[in-house]
Structures are given as C-alpha cells and as structure tokens.
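Honest question from a wet-lab person: if I give you the sequences of every part of a complex, can you actually get the arrangement of the whole thing, not just the pieces? Trying it with mine:
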Amino acid sequence: MSEPTIVRITTDPIDLNALQRAVTTPRDGAVVLFTGTVRGVTGAERTEKLEYEAYTEMAMAKLRQVADEMRAKFALIHGIALVQRVGEMAVGEPTVAVVVSAGHRGDGAFEAARYGIDRLKQIVPVWKKETRPDGSAWVEGDYVPSRGD
Amino acid sequence: MVIKLFATLKDRAGAGEITVSAEGECTVAELRTRIAAQHPALAELVARSIVAVNREFAFNDDVVRATDEVALFPPVSGGCL
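Yes, you can. This is the full assembly:
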C-alpha cells in the first residue's frame, strides 16, 4: 500500500496541523511530530533571528533519501513528512518538521522521527545564518559525509 | 565549469556561482586545487568544504566532468540546533 510521503523545502510558515492531517491514514492511531524552532537564548548568548538557505534541488533529493531510510529501518511506520523552511525566521518559529504516523505508538514512530531529524541534519544541504546583537555568522555543522550518504 | 556556492562560500566569493577553467574532466581533488588557484578568496575554505556532483556527495578521487552539476558548500547546519 502506498503511504503518504511529503518532502518539502518552503519559504512558507510550517503548518503543523496540516502536516499531521496529511500523513495520517485511517490505519493510524499514533502520530509523532518533531519540530525545531529558533532558540532565542543559548546560555549567555542571544539569537535575534535565523536565516536558512538551501541547495534546493539536492536538498529535495536528500529529504527523499532520509524518508527512504526511515521506511527501511522502521518497517511499521506509515506516513512521513519532512519539511524544512528556508528564509528568515524569528525566535519561536518552527524551522523544520518531521512527522511520522503509525498504527500504534510502539510501532517505531518515535524512533523514526528521531532518526529523521538526526539524519536530516547530517545530509540535507541547508545552512543557517545566525544574527546576534553583535552581528551575523553562518553556523557550520560538523558532519563530514562519506560514501553511502 | 560552473560551480554553485552556498552559505559561507557564497558570501566569501560575493556570488552564487563561480567559473573554473577545467578542460574535459578532473578529479574532485584537482578541482579543489583549481578553485583555490583561480578564486583566492575561497582558497582558505576550499579544502574543508564539501563538494557535490549531480546532487550527490563527491570525494577527492571522484571524477568531475564539465557537463556535471557541481556545488561547493560547508558542512550542513539545517534542521535545528
């Protein structure tokens, strides 16, 4: 049976309720939704806004790859949504969403969502520029891809 | 050969793409050397940047052809902190 798989790079605000509806099939009794938001306070540091940029064509291909890997590792899950917003976002706004539906909460939905966000942060070409009171700078990740990524 | 740039690389070059003269084909390692030589503003960053060819990660011994879609970018930092 074909299950809903949504992958999206968008400048629009992420509508979490719409994503939940879109991945939920009549066979689902559980939906796990992870969203990352712009954090304004990190210890003593203050963040005013984040600006996200994507290599959209490759990012879409890599989001599809993450969804395929989630299905391969967590065979009982049903719907998947992986959405990355790009452009400027203010503190508190959702920047990314990973949504997974399954028949029951024990069918790997939590684990699949965790895998999905961790993998997205490794291989999906998206970068963020952080603006603090003292200026802006690109944040660099630390994951170096290898063959198979 | 046209190379797409993102994030720090784009800012440093002052452009979303650069052109590198490369006849026929070369390895990713050779491409890094040519970028550093022809675009000195990127020289410091190019060794630790990621190269993608045709929307897949590429490695130093991979071959790049003039017709390929090539991109250079820092380790990714999307998602959320």
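Two things worth pointing out. The domain at 2-73 of chain B is CATH 3.10.20.30 (Ubiquitin-like (UB roll)). The two ends of chain B are 35 Å apart (CA to CA).
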